[in-house]
Design brief:
The protein folds into 2 domains: 2-21 and 264-341 and 400-484, no CATH class; 28-260, Aspartate Aminotransferase, domain 2 (3-Layer(aba) Sandwich), CATH 3.40.640. It is 33% helix and 12% strand. The chain is built from 16 helices and 17 strands. The protein has helices at residues 28-38, 47-60, 71-81, 99-105, 125-131, 151-161, 212-219, 249-259, 262-280, 308-314, 318-331, 347-350, 397-400, 403-420, 426-431, 435-441; strands spanning 64-68, 89-93, 110-114, 136-142, 164-168, 176-177, 180-181, 188-192, 205-209, 223-224, 243-244, 286-287, 301-302, 305-306, 468-469, 476-477, 483-484. A 7-stranded mixed beta sheet has the order 1-9-8-5-4-2-3, with helices on both faces. A two-stranded antiparallel sheet has the order 6-7. The chain has a two-stranded antiparallel sheet with strand order 10-11. A hairpin with a 5-residue loop joins strand 16 and strand 17 (483-484). The chain is globular and about 70 Å long. The protein binds pyridoxal-5'-phosphate. Residues 70-72, 96-97, 99-100, 142, 168, 170-171, 192, 194, 205 line the site of pyridoxal-5'-phosphate.
Length: 487
């Protein structure tokens, strides 16, 4: 199998002429809804946004829903909704998309990262309790890669300590925990409608909760801070600091059309996910994607991971291994990207400066001894890039960049050079590493992939983390290995 890989000059598994499915799919009903939105004259506070809110609330089992212009905006609304404010601490996983932590900063509160559990890649409930301080007000959990967190364990801890629970359900629409949908399990939740999600309006988000007071507090930051609903007449008076998070009617109409077919989309994504799971079963070195009977996936992403021992056995640097596998995937015609989502390694946290002047960490109400020392997260951070800080020269970014990162960057540069020449790590090439089998077995899947590791310290994160996403777009491999793009 390995000697058939495109990276060593063989034909691509995904031929050039294969067209990836357009995502999201646009149906006649979808076009009709978008046209109906275009041909009416309420584009702000529009009728399709109202329908999106009420139909999603019904679909998901929430009492309240507000349609936003992004998942990030909905997350910030959750933070405000839970009464979290300046200097308050919110515990969140070290591994996620940046918005899971920056939404906390948006309200001048402080993210406290805890490591993830390697098997699930979710926040480790066992690590949460140790991170609680007198300043802790909430826990922001992430239903990562379309699988719900262990919510029973998390809610038990939260209730014991009187903490609010925010669900970042941006990747996980329709995922369940013991039969209950994500977004109904904590105090408030956010979904993303960004294009690479199962449920999309191009861009957009949804803020949901079952508690009226929570809903009102969240909404208070969403439309400037003029808190009256339009039907009550605008007051044009700000009660505090507000943002502008509303969506417009057109993307809401598009999202509404996708919502009405979401059950079918999720079922299709799940079939593709299961197809990969079946066909990759037994592949040496490959760790099957995480899910359990109690916490089934919504099919959003298929996470590809190699066993940590693989890199040790091959004596290959994990970053190089991931680079090599990525290069191999790319050569086959797969859309590829490697996630680098070890959040505390990002410059904003290393510099402890979000707004300039060291805010909010330098503020009087913030605990002075907040540390983002990466050794607290037994994870690799070797691919972290350090960018100039937009807040200005006082950011201290360079000074805070760990030495290891700086020395690694030269190494990365060399890897990049090698990749540019289309080659792969020689040890990997020689090893008979069976990843090619995945490519050959599922030749028409698309999405992106990256590889996660735990070789050095038996924990995940950062540069070698992996996923294949956008399964709604996949063309199902038919029995016999041919592509079948019928739905
Ligand atoms: C886990 C997670 N949280 C938050 C977001 C932010 O959503 P949006 O891009 O809609 O702002 C994303 C987006 O990919 C995400 O994956």
């Amino acid at each position: 199998m390995f000697d058939q890989l495109a990276i060593i000059g063989c034909p691509r598994a995904i031929p050039e002429e294969v067209q990836f499915r357009m995502w999201p799919e646009v149906t006649e009903q979808g076009e009709a809804l978008v046209l109906a939105s275009l041909r009416q004259d309420r584009h702000a506070f529009g009728p399709h946004a109202e329908l999106l809110q009420s139909e999603f609330a019904t679909w998901n089992g929430n009492r309240f829903c507000f349609a936003t212009n992004s998942g990030t905006a909905a997350l910030h609304m959750c933070v405000a909704a839970c009464g979290i404010g300046p200097g308050d601490e919110v515990i969140t996983p070290a591994l996620s998309w940046t918005s899971s932590a920056t939404c906390i900063l948006h309200h001048n509160a402080i993210p406290i990262f805890v490591d993830v559990d390697w098997e699930s890649m979710h926040i480790d409930p066992a690590a949460i309790e140790a991170a609680i301080t007198p300043k802790t007000r909430g826990i922001l959990v992430v239903h990562y890669w379309g699988v719900a967190c262990d919510m029973d364990a998390i809610m038990t801890i939260a209730r014991r300590h009187g903490l609010a629970v925010i669900e970042d359900a941006c990747q996980a629409v329709g995922a369940t925990c013991e039969g209950r949908k994500v977004g109904t399990l904590g105090d408030a939740a956010a979904f993303s409608l960004n294009q690479n999600k199962n449920f999309t309006g191009g861009e957009g988000g949804l803020f949901v909760t079952n508690d009226e007071a929570t809903f009102i507090r969240g909404k208070a930051v969403s439309s400037f801070s003029d808190m009256r609903p339009p039907e009550a007449g605008r007051e044009y008076h700000d009660y505090g600091l507000g943002w502008m998070y509303r969506t417009s009617d057109l993307p809401a109409a598009f999202a509404l059309s996708q919502l009405r077919r979401l059950d079918a989309t999720n079922a299709h994504a799940l079939r593709n996910w299961q197809s990969l799971q079946r066909q990759l079963a037994g592949t040496p070195h490959l760790v099957p994607a995480f899910h359990t009977a109690e916490r089934p996936t919504n099919g959003y992403a298929y996470v590809l991971r190699v066993t940590p021992e693989t890199a040790i056995d091959l004596d290959v640097d994990l970053s190089a291994l991931a680079t090599g596998i990525g290069a191999a995937l790319g050569a086959e015609g797969s859309r590829f990207s490697r996630a680098n989502w070890l959040l505390p390694a990002h410059s904003v946290f290393q510099a402890k400066n979000a707004y300039g002047g060291g805010y909010p960490w330098s503020a009087a109400h913030t605990r002075p001894d907040i540390s983002y020392d990466l050794s607290q997260y037994p994870s690799r951070h070797s691919n972290t890039r350090h960018h100039p800080h937009p807040a200005g020269a006082d950011s201290g970014t360079e000074a805070c960049a760990p030495r290891a990162d700086r020395s690694r960057s030269a190494h990365r540069h060399r890897l990049g050079h090698r990749r540019a020449h289309g080659s792969c790590h020689p040890r990997l090439l020689r090893s008979g590493f069976p990843f090619g089998r995945a490519l050959r077995l599922c030749p028409c899947t698309t999405g992106h992939a990256a590889i996660r590791d735990r070789s050095r310290r038996c924990h995940p994160a950062g540069d070698t983390h992996a996923h294949v996403s956008g399964p709604g777009r996949w063309l199902l491999p038919a029995p016999g290995g041919r592509c079948d793009d019928r739905r």
